[in-house]
Amino acid sequence: MPEMKLGLFFWPAGHHLTAWRHPDATADAGQNMAHMVEMAKLAEEGLFDMFFMADSVSFWRGDLEAMVRDNYGAKIEPFSLMVALSQHTKHLGLVCTATTSFDQPYLLARRFASLDLASGGRAGWNLVTSTHRAEAESFGTQPHMAKSERYRRAREFAHVTRGLWNSFDDDAFPRDKESGVFLDQDKLHILEHEGEHFQVRGPLNVPPSPQGEPVMVQAGSSEDGRELAAETAEVVFGIHQTLEGAQGFYADVKARMAAYGRHPGALKIMPGLMVYVGHDKEAAAEKFEMMQDLIDDRTGIEFLSNRMDFDFSGHDPDGPVPDIEFDNISSSRGQLYLDVARREDLTIRGLWRRVAGARGHMQIVGSPVEVVDFMEEWFTGQACDGFNIMPPLFPHDLRDFNELVVPELQRRGLFRTAYEGTTLRENLGLTRPAWPSGKTGAAKAAE
Ligand SMILES: Cc1cc2nc3c(=O)[nH]c(=O)nc-3n(C[C@H](O)[C@H](O)[C@H](O)COP(=O)(O)O)c2cc1C
Questions:
Q1: Which fold does the domain 5-275+358-446 belong to in CATH?
Q2: For ligand 1, atom 11, which residue shows the shortest CA distance?
Q3: For labelling alongside 115, which of 109, 211, 374, 401 has CA 20 to 30 A away?
Q4: Per-residue pLDDT tens digits for 159-178
Q5: 161 vs 176, 232, 237, CA distance in Å?
Q6: b or e along 187-202 (b: 16 or more beta carbons within 10 Å of the residue's beta carbon)?
Q7: What are 406-445's pLDDT values in tens digits?
Q8: pLDDT in tens, 15-43
């Protein structure tokens, strides 16, 4: 029987919106190295495939109200954290976000290839196109690119990045002291990319890692996002509220892969799941209620305004959610929240109590058996290939997951009892995707 894959979605103090205000929380978790190293080590003890940290290139929305109350705004830059964690772990995949809208493929390819080397082949890149206006404002005064344009650039960006990662055959560096040949030029491939957004000659100046190249991760869910995932992604982090919704997304993205000559098994779909687990249902419910009580009105209003890109501050929290027209900046997340509000007939307050804690992701509250029943139903029902686990409070809920949920998953044969390999690809069961080799150094020299 195939086994599910598990990512640990890291969020400094915990994934619950107001986790940092919990009496037991590490309030400075986003800059506390001892805390972050401990979480990575715990993830490795739990045999998680990877540790994932999200990112943006601004405070989320950038206005003062959000900055004052949001614990995720100011924190360590994730890439730097991944390099540090690579020296404290041996098997755990290390995945973080980088944007295609405000970066350059050569610089990004070089950084991730370096993380891949530093970690012995455990790096992954979560490709995002950046949805927030404040992010565009970090780079100039022009309005943010339209979504279709962002994705066009992302597609070319991904292509160039992979091309650079394929600059060398695995045995391109003989480093032969006797002959003096460090690099075999016949095993060097020069990209010479000339495209709409980028002109990049190559080769990359970082050698390949034990897994060949970093794993491509993505989290977009719009039409453009799905198409790019089908073409380029090896892991997709989803966001779903219902089994049917997740099954539809799973079938849709996997079906699109054939057009790019890809097998459905070459992509692992892992929706986010916030888990409140206790020894029994009552203990889990108690935890859940305590976390929801931490959400005050201002935080709830601020959360919805930020995520839906709509100013709720003048609206009565106990009134209905207004009709909102989403422009190209607004993402599928805003529409998802609006759908939840309409489906469940929620007030503004009801909506934030419903979605803010888990920030729109699926949540489950229950005993170990109930949690694993849920995960098994989604996994065997072709709604996912695994989960991106979001503990509400660190380290408490990660420890509980390791101690209560992992053994039950293993007992049912749904999850590994030891790591399969040392690289992220080996553990995810992914082979390195093919790349049409470019011109070699020798061919270039002959020109
Ligand atoms: C689990 C998960 C993690 C994400 N991480 C980030 C992130 O780190 N940075 C970011 O800008 N967007 C992140 N996103 C947003 C997506 O990249 C994407 O922009 C969003 O889901 C909207 O999809 P669309 O752009 O295809 O409409 C994440 C989404 C999910 C579901």
A1: TIM Barrel (3.20.20)
A2: 130
A3: 401
A4: 999 999 999 999 999 999 99
A5: 29, 11, 20
A6: bbbbbebeeeebebeb
A7: 999 999 999 999 999 999 999 999 999 988 776 766 665 5
A8: 998 999 999 999 999 999 999 999 999 99
Task: Give residues (CB < 6 A) around ligand 1.
Answer: 54-56, 97, 126, 128-131, 219-222, 224-225, 237, 239, 272, 331-333, 388
Q: How far apart are CA 361 and CA 357, in angstroms?
A: 9
Tokens standing for 23? 């009496």
Provide the residue type at 278 as one letter. G
d(CA 73, ligand 1 centre) in Å? 16
Q: Across-strand partners of 363? A: 274
* In the predicted structure, residue 63 carries a pLDDT above the cut 70: no
Q: Which of 268, 273, 198 is nearest to 229 (CA)?
A: 268
Backbone angles phi, psi at 269, to 5 degrees: -100, 125
DSSP 13: T
The answer to whether the predicted template modeling score (pTM) of the entire model surpasses 0.85 is: yes
